[in-house]
Each structure stands twice: as structure tokens, then as C-alpha cells.
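Lecture notes, unit on protein representations.

Consider one protein chain, 75 amino acids long.
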Amino acid sequence: EKLLNGCAGKYATGDEVYLADLFLAPQIQAAISRFSVDMTQFPILSRLNDAYNELPAFQDSMPHKQPDTPDEFKG
């Protein structure tokens, strides 16, 4: 959150998807789905997660959509 303050645009480092987004998206998703992190304390990360969830490529890459994902992690 501190690192993103002042540099985040629509995505982590601006208004285009860059490498940072590819690393952040699954970490945010895991924090929410596996560890039930309350994201209200992280407004920038919450906004980024919403932006990632709008992108078909990010939706398709989520772990629960992969054929080798164990059943306990499928939503």
C-alpha cells in the first residue's frame, strides 16, 4: 500500500498493465480467498483487485480456474 501510494493509476504503476500487476493480482486474490484478509484497510490494493477482475486475461489466469487446482481451492 505504501509503495503504491503516489504511483498507482488504474493499475499498480500507471494506466497500463505492467509486470508489477502480474505479480500483485494473484497475491491479492490469495489474501482475499485463502486468508480472508479484510481489504478495507488497503484501499489501493482493493481498487487494483477490482481493476484486475475486469480483465478477461486476469480472470482466466486465476488459480481456481486452472485444471490442476485442488478441489478445496476451487470456488
